Amino acid sequence: MQNSDEGTVDAAEQPAEVKVSGYSWYALGILVLVYILNFVDRNIMSILAEDIKADLGIGDADLGFLYGTAFGVFYALFGIPLGKLADSWHRIRLMTIGLALWSAMTALSGFAKSFTTLGVARIGVGVGEATASPAAYSLISDWFPKRMRATALAIYSSGLYLGGGISLFIGGLIVERWNNAYPGGGPLDLVGWQAAFLSVGIPGLLLAALVITLKEPIRGQADGIVSEPVRDPFRGFVNELFAVIPPFTVFQAAKHGSRALLMNILGALAIGGAAYGLILLTGNVPQWIALGIGYYAVFSWATTLRRRDPPAFALIWGSPAFLCTILGYGMVAFAAYAVSFWAAPYAIRVLGESPSIVGWWIGGPGALGGFLGVIIGGKVADMLRDRNPSGRLLVVLFGVLAPVIPLIVAFTTSTVWLFYLLNFVISLFASSALGAAAATSQDLVLPRMRGTATATFFLSTTLVGLALGPYLAGQVSTLTGSLSTGVLSLLVAAPIGSILLIAAYRLLPGAEASVVERARAAGEAI
User: Element (H or E) spanning 60, and its range?
Assistant: First the structure.
């Protein structure tokens, strides 16, 4: 066989049943540690939110922006070129560089003295963390065969929930003890929330030294579609970078003629007009400028991908099954990210709990619930797929619908122990969907496209879930004066997600069975 980008492919030489080595499990364990730290650094803002709000003089909508949009937009945008680099370069090196970058930027967050400087640091964290999952998903898909892929990806994804829980416990403990020890500010004039950022950022630099020792697997071997190394891996990365970063996007479009340039400009005007309308409606300039840039960049990238790599465009953006799957899961992320961020401030502000108590009773059970949910969900998804090609999507649909009632009760009760218990249940139910959605996105593309497919998957979880969910809850809270009302506004995700996932369920069998044919029809030489 031959494909257009990656050289010789010989499925006949590959074993029909790929065995999983002990080293694969060891490497997966290291990736889980990376992902744990990823979410410690990302989610620690939740337990620090009340202190940051008081010290910097900002509101709930601003907190939602810092946690979600400032991080999420740049995480998503840089995930596109970095996903391409993961498809063509040394994935272990890429992850090591990214880990060092986001750890350094987390530590630098500890020196922030204003909304702007903290926002810039959060952008840096987002850029660094954008390396992790495209590389990790691709590596895991080469270390584990398709029959175990949802389970392996679910184990990796457990780092999300373990890291989120650990961040609350560590952050709450540090901020409370530091502020008690140094009421007016400690060494270097740092207050508790700043010390917490430094404490979780520095260890990542040490973990990077371990990650670089991992061995790079043979790309595509687990599927019997071995690919030769790309000769100029950074060329594709630079092309993707210019395709998503304004104003280079305009020049990139102009290279393809007046029609491409006109389409790009019209897209920019339409998205800019929508952003301007939302600015007038909400009064929040940073949120909608950042999100407008994000959506315009994705539009530019998708149109460029269509010209440069028609097979990848056909299997990703041209596939209704793929789009319905990732947008359906995006609705899970929309609610889950917001609950993950606002649960701690809610317990502190509304229920009167201390940060250390909240860190323990939300962080610990939340981590356990997320870990159990993602592992059980991954196993159940693989079992259902054995019986039904669309079976995994039933688990994703469960992740959309099952948290609805627990969420309503949790954010209306005045009983503290019930609030903590229901946060565990919400984490358990919502986390069950991740492994199934991730594995489905990987199965709908060719091996050479997995990094790009992962980046696209995370566009949905970030530009739809992370960049909108926490902000919407904060904006509604600001408008109504009720954080409970803000969180309950997230329930809009349930009907939208259900419709998308039912459509994906019907479309998936035909889409998965025709991956090679559709790639060939779009120009892939196989």
Answer: helix 60-64
8, 292, 367, 469, 510 from 445: Cα distances, Å: 18, 28, 31, 28, 13
Phi–psi pair at 2, nearest 5 degrees: -145, 135
- Distances in whole angstroms, Cα of residue 508 to Cα of each of 144, 153, 437, 438, 441: 22, 19, 12, 14, 10
- Examine residue 247 and say whether the peptide bond preceding it is cis (omega within 30 degrees of 0): yes
pLDDT by residue (tens digit) across 295-334?
Answer: 999 999 899 888 888 999 999 999 999 999 999 999 999 9
Give the chain's length.
526
DSSP conformation class of 24:
H
pLDDT in tens, 342-388: 999 999 999 999 998 998 999 889 889 988 898 899 889 989 998 89
The whole-angstrom separation of Cα 407 and Cα 349 is: 18
Q: Whose structure tokens read 């109504």?
A: 480
CB 332 within 8 A of CB 460: no
Closest CA to 339 of 407, 402, 435: 407
For residues 404 and 427, give the distance between their C-alpha atoms in angstroms, rounded to a whole number: 12
pTM exceeds 0.70 for this model? yes
DSSP secondary structure, 78-119, as one string: HHHHHHHHHTTS-HHHHHHHHHHHHHHHHHHHTT--SHHHHH
Rounded to whole angstroms, the Cα distance separating 180 from 171 reads 14
